[in-house]
Model the fold of this input.
Amino acid sequence: MKASTLRIGYRYRPNRLAEKYDAVVIGSGMGGLTTAAMLSDLGWKVCVLEQHYTAGGYTHSYERNGYEWDVGVHYIGDVGTKTRTRRMFDYLSDGKLEWAPMDEEYDRFYVGDKVFNAKAGKQQFRDNLVRQFPDEADAIEAYMALLESAGSAMSPVAMSRVLEPWQSTLMSPYLKWKTPNFLFRITYDVLAELTDNKELIAVICGQWGDMGLPPKQSTFMVHAMIARHYLYGGFYPIGGSWRIADSIIPKIQAAGGEVFTYASVEAILVNDGRATGVAMSDGHIIECPCVISSAGINNTFQKLLSAEVAEKAGYENKLKTVEPSFAHLGVYIGLTATAEELGLPKTNFWIYPDSDYDGAVEEFVEDDSRPFPVVYISFPSAKDPDYANRHPGTATIEIVAPAPYQWFAKWRDETWGKRGDEYDSFKAALGDRLMEHLYQKLPDLRGKVDYFEVSTPLSTNWFGGYQQGELYGLSHTPDRMQQKWLRPKTTIPGLWLTGQDILTCGVTGAMMAGMLTTTSIVGTRKIAPLMKRIYS
Ligand SMILES: Cc1cc2nc3c(=O)[nH]c(=O)nc-3n(C[C@H](O)[C@H](O)[C@H](O)COP(=O)(O)OP(=O)(O)OC[C@H]3O[C@@H](n4cnc5c(N)ncnc54)[C@H](O)[C@@H]3O)c2cc1C
Done:
């Protein structure tokens, strides 16, 4: 298999580095790029180091056999009007990132043999739910009210991550008042107090795959955040998800910084208790008093820092309070006809065996012959009005489904593309099963697929550096969401964190984490004029 030629960023060579940088960012995902771009705008010269051959982290796309697929972006919400999210994307991309709306019915849930849809627009979403569950109008009303109050608690919760301990103590009564007690409860428990209709709960939780935890394990806050995020519909970045990083990088370069690819950081250097730079895998040292890790909590504290430093800084026990999120399989499909010719929708399909999502996950983890607990199907070329210009006469489809990392762990030391027959046939069998789900929903596609390939949790490990192929970094349990140490500032002076692990997963979650990290580094007084510019 040939590696993709769709690459952005500048290939790392030690002699391409500037003499001095104000900050070094590890990882070029949305968290790292947002932090780098905001610091650059404040006059910092920032060096972003990305181990992959292309920049963007989970927002990168790849191309093979004339097709192009995204690996970690299928839809983004809240960008249809000048919302806070949209303004932030506009700012980072200098208005160059454009968005195409999906169909009004942006998510379709197949729950057993029943079909439900999520409709764009708050009132439309509510009315549509009531139409599907006419006896549950009161419960639906109460649910919408919960979403509303969860929404107004999100900003204080996020901002509390940048407070110094003394400020936290001072702000504690306000934060408590602003944080409703249902926020950190289990999603299912909160919903079960509104209704005993299991099908309604299943539809309300139909997007659980967007955070990787079924309703009896997930935090209501994250459920509410995702539901609100998509309440006004789903949008797709025109030109493909790689355009996200492509449109942000110039901001970093304008201040003299750069985004380097093939730039694997081996270690974060700590001297006399302070971060002083990074050691690259080629042995080169980049000295810098400000190191920002967007490579994820586990990579940062278990790989890039020595066990001794992590322990001394107080992270050894803290790490026991979090665990990696689920891993996944991906199927990347190419067809030799356009999305229009094939009648592909701009709607995501979520396919569930029945309404007991947690039960299905449990069974599947124990026994891989059990039905997939969720199969997600997305039609990127249908969503992207520019796809036909880049790849005329073709269409693409992507399938995502959970799969435990442990099933693949025995091949973890093998090289990508050369993991042997046993691995290939195991993943091919899983891929064929996932393809059957596609054909069941769209039977006319049978015989029209030109090409498909399957990724496993080992691919996520290989290309994204996630040690256990984590789909969304840390698992979004109520416990994790209340860990106060998951914040930009570490106990090691000069070392900062950003990305999905310090707030929540999602491109927007990682972007907001980048904003928090920048705020934490430069302080609220210095960030204020920039925030005013972004949001005025
Ligand atoms: C299959 C899938 C579908 C998704 N769908 C959506 C969606 O539709 N909408 C949405 O909003 N979100 C979606 N997400 C989630 C979203 O993509 C992520 O939450 C978000 O992009 C994470 O950004 P990040 O910056 O925190 O991390 P990442 O994007 O993972 O960036 C971390 C970067 O660090 C690099 N790195 C790691 N170690 C090193 C090292 N030692 N040296 C140098 N670099 C290193 C990695 O290569 C990586 O590029 C999806 C994710 C997946 C996997």
Observations:
- The longest strand covers residues 328-335.
- The mean pLDDT is 95.
